[in-house]
Structures are given as structure tokens and as C-alpha cells.
């Protein structure tokens, strides 16, 4: 089946809906959203703590302070043009959401409530500041609902439960790459659809399911990053993957940083507030990479809690019941439901959980997809949110900056995509644009291979957790390179037993395993190549940050002539008013 829209958005989370909503404000273009899930099930709904914006409703704050915290939090790999645009624009974006009807928590004077969050400070690092605008601990859920309602109101067309299988990218007469649409599987029927578009916005989220313990939904399997990478196009800064310090022990379900923003304290088995040793100025509100490493060190040195000494404790028991249950209702319910622990009375067992990709498809500050490290574009293609890398987050994202990223750069990508589509025409499609996608489906359905995709996924998640997680070495990552080559070879021998068309989850999950393997390949190669420690990339064999050699972005390309080989290039960091300094909190 064939469809044609001026602007096509892939993904219906916060960045996708923001892109679609602002593209639809251009009445000269038609806009459609293609989503793997029903929109309000998108993973933005799992975000809890807030949107960082320097409103100054509780105490004095300025966008320059927010920009500084973003750059410093990103360990100076953040592109400072993106950070400046972001810190300024996110203020207006929060008020836009408020005017759309988003039910923010309120201060007694009626203004949007704000609370402290990790890495957010006043006066360029002197003390924590209340910057996170929140809706109890359901901020992402409220953003998702609000933007979906506004997009429906604006007349955006939705194609729900469609899984993208291919991007239609070709070289034009001048040798420039151009995107002409996507090919997708309608999950409910098994039918292959071609979506012809003047411009496409990719907003399909991250790939946390490459790890065993993760806060990410089952749907976050790096589909669009993989498809981009398969075409010989680059993925930027994949070595930087954030582990959130406070996942529910064993399960990885997120406990918001807002719990520490409200006064929660991290403790080891002896009850010590151990973050005083690692970040004496802002303690439990240090950036996530630092807190996760501190937790790992406490566990490794034998100060973990429980029978197996494999978790630490988040203590909220000193806070009033009305704070815990009133401002953190979801995490209170999670702790009671999944652990049988009442956080009002007992500390909550926690351990770091794979949470967020700082890297992704490289883009300009307007969301234009980059074809290389020299600024050449894939014409007509845009990306925003976690699938993208505008390099706002650098080597480590600050809490709340993901929701801000969605609304600021989702909006910019949507506006840019609509403007491009308004002045463009429908590029001619290749003769059989769905040929590759149909071939992949046929290979999995009719193959006689004996490998099982679920078994490969399990081995991938376990080995990535062991070899490419919070701490890394040449030995562990080199081992993972060989593991991934073996898993990629085995994946070619995967077939599915279910050959039906409707809701064939065995088929869709097998496709997702292939995507995860691709992204893990690029991530591991990027991490092995970067011989320094910076932000979330912590190498025990190269423990220091090396600005002289490594103040640059990694661009990882699949070597199309040698399967399993990754080519590494670089892109300069955009510097500005904040010169790289030692990262002390």
C-alpha cells in the first residue's frame, strides 16, 4: 500500500509529537505520524522528574547558569551552540506546554513548582538550584497526553502500530543523499506500506534494551539508528551511554532523581551518606554518571546492602509522608508494588540501570540529519529526541534535559521539516522501494535456520551489561567486539516459526534483535576507540579526561565492504563561552 504526505514523523513520543504539532502549524503541508505503539504508550510517558528551565519561580535562576550546567555536566563535549539555544528556548517551551493545558504542580502563589535536580546549580556551580518544572512524578506522562491531544486537534494523521523496516535514501543527480520516505510493516495485518514524503523526521527513541538491566521499555531497540547505520551513514558519540543511579534493584524500573531533589539520601549498608565523599558540594545531586560510578564503587568495595551485597539504599524516611506520597506518588507505588517496601518507613533498594543514549543520528541545531562529520546533509531527513545527537548532552546528560530536549529540538525539527517540504516536490521513488523490507521478512519467515532470536538477545544483553557498562577496559570491550561478531553471524541463521501475518510478535522481535546488534556493534567500537574517561564513558585503563587528544565527537560508520568492521571518523566540538575545566562538584 502506498501513502503520500509532505511531512512524515516516525515516532509518537515527546519529540515526535512536538515535531508533528509544529509542522502542522504550516497549513501548506500535510503531516502524518507513524508509530510503533499507540502514541500515549510511547516511552516519554515513563519520564518522571521534570523539565529543567530557568524560570526562577523558587529562587533566582538564569539561562546562562543552565547552559553552564549543561556544558559542564556533558564534560565539555556538549556543543555550546546547541546548549545556548536550548537553555534559552526551553523557558518559553515550558510556558507553551502550560498554555496547552499541561497540569504542572503549583507553588502556593500559583506559579509552576520547581525542585532541585542533579547537576543543576546557581551561580555557575556554587550550590543546587530549583530548576525542574514538574507534574508530581508523572511529568513525561503529562507531556505525552498534552501533545497528543494538541496534535489530534491540529489535524495530524496517525498510523499507529507500524514498524519501520527501511528508509528510502538515495543519491540524487548531484551525488547528494536525499530521503524520499520510509517502508513500514503494519503490525495488525502484516502488510508492507510505502510512505512517500518530502521530508521525514525520525523521533523513535533509544536502544536501552541492548542491556540486561534497563529502565527502557521493550520497544526501545534502536530501530532507526540501525537502519541509518546500515546505509553507511554515521552514528555520533555512541560510546556515551548513561546509567541512571536509582533503578529499582534487580528490575531497573526507574526511581526519579526528583526523589533526591525532594531530599532523599543515598546510603550504603552502614547507613553512611556516601556521596559526601564523592561530591562534597552537591552530594546526592551530582550528575548521574558520577553518582552511578560512586554506587558501583561502594558495591565493589563491599558496602552493598542485602544478602548478596548487590544494592544500595535510597532513604526517604526522614521526609514527611505528605512529601513522599504527595510529590512522588508513582515511585511510592512502585516500591510498594514491586519490592514490598514502604518508602515512608523503609529505605528503597536501588542499583544503576541502563537509561539513556547521549549519542545517535548526528544533526544540526535545526534537526537536519548529517551524512558525515563535514556538515553534509541527508536532504529531507531530520531527527530529534533520543534517536538524534545534536550534542546537547555531550558525554553525560543532566536529569530533566531529556524532556527539555524533546520539546525544544522536536519543535525546531518540525518547523524546519515543514519549511523544507513547502518548497520541495515529491522526489521520484525507486522502482521497488519495498524490495529490501520484503526480502528481510521473507528471509526470517521462510528460512530454515536453527538460531533463536530471543536467545541471541539474552546473550547480547548479558554481555553488554558485563563488558560495556559503567566501567570499561580494553580487555572487556575487545572481548565484546568478538562476542558481537559471533552473535551477528548467528543472527543470519535466525528464522521464525510463526509465519502468520497478524500481530506476529515473533517476527517483529526478531527484527528488533538485528537492530540491537547493529547499534551495539557501533557503540562498542566507539567506546573501544576512545582512550580516555569522559562523562558516562569511564575507562579504568585510561582514567583521565584528555582534552588535547579527545575533545572531539566520534562518528561511527559501518564498513559496507567488510561486514563486522566499523570505520571511525570525527567531528569537532562547538566550543564557546565556557572553556573546558576540571569537573568538580
UniProtKB/TrEMBL annotation:
**Domain FAD-dependent oxidoreductase 2 FAD-binding, first and last residues per copy:** 6-403
Localization, UniProt: Membrane
Note describing how the cofactor binds? Flavinylated by SdhE, about 5% flavinylation occurs in the absence of SdhE.
The organism's superkingdom is given as Bacteria
Write down the required cofactor(s): FAD
The chain residues annotated with the modification Tele-8alpha-FAD histidine are 43
Record's catalysed reaction(s): a quinone + succinate = fumarate + a quinol
Q: In which pathway is this protein known to take part?
A: Carbohydrate metabolism; tricarboxylic acid cycle; fumarate from succinate (bacterial route): step 1/1
Protein topology in the membrane: Peripheral membrane protein
**InterPro entries in alphabetical order:** FAD-dep_OxRdtase_2_FAD-bd, FAD/NAD-bd_sf, FRD_SDH_FAD_BS, Fum_R/Succ_DH_flav-like_C_sf, Fum_Rdtase/Succ_DH_flav-like_C, SdhA/FrdA/AprA, Succ_DH/fumarate_Rdtase_cat_sf, Succ_DH_flav_su_fwd
Q: What class of enzyme is it?
A: oxidoreductase
Binding, substrate? 244, 256, 355, 397
- According to the entry, every stretch annotated as the Fumarate reductase/succinate dehydrogenase flavoprotein-like C-terminal domain falls at 457-585
| PANTHER family to which the protein is assigned, alphabetical | SUCCINATE DEHYDROGENASE 2 FLAVOPROTEIN SUBUNIT, SUCCINATE DEHYDROGENASE [UBIQUINONE] FLAVOPROTEIN SUBUNIT, MITOCHONDRIAL
Protein name according to UniProt: Succinate dehydrogenase flavoprotein subunit
Name its species: Deinococcus yavapaiensis KR-236
Amino acid at each position: 500500500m502506498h501513502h503520500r504526505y509532505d511531512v512524515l514523523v516516525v515516532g509518537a513520543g515527546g519529540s515526535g509529537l512536538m515535531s508533528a504539532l509544529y509542522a502542522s502549524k504550516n497549513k501548506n503541508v500535510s503531516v502524518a505520524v507513524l508509530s510503533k505503539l499507540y502514541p500515549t504508550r510511547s516511552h516519554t510517558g515513563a519520564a518522571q522528574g521534570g523539565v529543567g528551565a530557568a524560570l526562577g519561580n523558587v529562587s533566582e535562576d538564569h539561562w546562562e547558569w543552565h547552559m553552564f550546567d549543561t556544558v559542564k555536566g556533558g564534560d565539555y563535549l556538549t556543543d555550546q551552540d546547541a546548549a545556548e539555544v536550548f537553555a534559552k528556548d526551553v523557558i518559553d517551551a515550558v510556558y507553551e506546554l502550560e498554555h496547552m493545558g499541561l497540569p504542572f504542580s503549583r507553588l502556593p502563589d500559583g506559579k509552576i513548582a520547581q525542585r532541585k535536580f542533579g547537576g543543576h546549580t546557581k551561580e555557575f556551580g556554587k550550590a543546587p538550584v530549583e530548576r525542574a518544572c514538574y507534574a508530581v512524578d508523572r511529568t513525561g506522562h503529562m507531556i505525552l497526553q498534552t501533545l497528543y491531544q494538541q496534535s489530534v486537534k491540529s489535524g495530524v494523521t496517525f498510523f499507529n502500530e507500524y514498524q519501520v523496516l527501511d528508509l528510502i535514501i538515495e543519491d540524487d543527480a548531484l551525488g547528494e543523499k536525499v530521503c524520499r520516505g520510509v517502508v513500514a510493516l503494519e503490525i495488525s495485518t502484516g502488510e508492507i506500506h510505502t510512505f512517500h514524503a518530502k521530508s521525514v523526521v525520525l523521533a523513535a527513541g533509544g536502544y536501552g534494551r541492548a542491556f540486561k538491566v534497563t529502565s527502557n521499555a521493550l520497544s526501545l531497540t534502536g530501530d532507526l539508528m540501525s537502519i541509518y547505520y546500515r546505509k553507511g551513514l554515521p552514528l555520533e558519540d555512541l560510546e556515551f551511554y548513561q546509567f541512571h543511579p536509582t533503578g529499582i534493584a534487580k528490575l531497573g524500573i526507574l526511581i526519579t532523581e526528583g526523589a533526591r531533589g525532594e531530599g532523599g539520601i543515598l546510603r550504603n549498608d552502614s547507613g553512611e551518606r556516601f556521596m559526601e565523599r564523592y561530591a562534597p558540594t552537591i552530594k546526592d545531586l551530582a550528575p548521574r554518571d558520577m553518582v552511578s560510578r560512586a554506587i558501583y564503587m561502594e558495591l565493589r568495595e563491599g558496602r552493598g546492602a542485602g544478602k548478596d551485597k548487590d544494592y544500595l539504599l535510597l532513604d526517604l524516611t526522614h521526609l514527611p509522608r505528605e512529601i513522599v506520597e504527595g510529590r512522588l506518588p508513582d515511585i511510592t507505588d512502585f516500591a510498594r508494588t514491586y519490592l514490598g517496601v514502604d518508602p515512608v518507613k523503609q529505605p528503597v533498594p536501588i542499583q544503576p540501570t541502563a537509561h539513556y543514549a547521549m549519542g545517535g543520528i548526528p544533526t544540526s541545531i535545526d534537526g537536519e540529519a548529517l551524512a558525515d562529520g563535514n556538515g553534509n546533509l541527508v536532504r529531507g531527513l531530520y531527527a530529534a529526541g533520543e534517536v538524534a545527537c545534536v550534542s546537547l548532552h555531550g558525554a553525560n546528560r543532566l536529569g530533566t534535559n531529556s524532556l527539555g530536549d524533546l520539546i525544544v529540538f522536536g519543535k525546531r525539527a518540525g518547523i524546519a521539516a515543514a519549511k523544507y517540504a513547502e518548497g520541495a516536490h515529491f522526489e521520484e521513488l525507486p522502482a521497488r522501494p519495498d524490495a529490501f523490507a520484503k526480502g528481510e521478512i521473507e528471509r526470517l519467515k521462510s528460512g530454515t535456520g536453527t538460531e533463536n532470536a530471543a536467545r541471541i538477545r539474552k546473550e547480547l544483553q548479558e554481555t553488554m551489561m558485563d563488558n560495556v557498562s559503567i566501567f570499561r577496559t580494553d580487555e572487556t570491550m575487545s572481548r565484546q567486539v568478538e562476542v558481537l561478531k559471533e552473535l551477528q553471524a548467528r543472527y543470519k541463521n535466525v528464522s521464525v516459526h510463526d509465519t502468520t501475518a497478524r500481530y506476529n510478535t515473533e517476527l517483529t522481535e526478531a527484527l528488533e534483535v538485528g537492530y540491537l546488534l547493529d547499534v551495539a556493534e557501533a557503540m562498542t567500537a566507539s567506546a573501544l576507540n576512545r582512550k580516555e574517561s569522559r562523562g558516562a564513558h569511564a575507562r579504568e585503563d585510561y582514567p583521565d579526561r584528555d582534552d588535547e587528544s579527545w575533545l572531539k565527537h566520534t562518528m561511527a560508520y559501518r564498513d559496507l565492504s567488510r561486514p563486522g568492521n566499523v570505520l571511525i571518523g570525527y567531528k569537532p566540538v562547538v566550543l564557546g563561552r565556557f572553556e573546558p575545566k576540571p569537573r568538580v562538584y
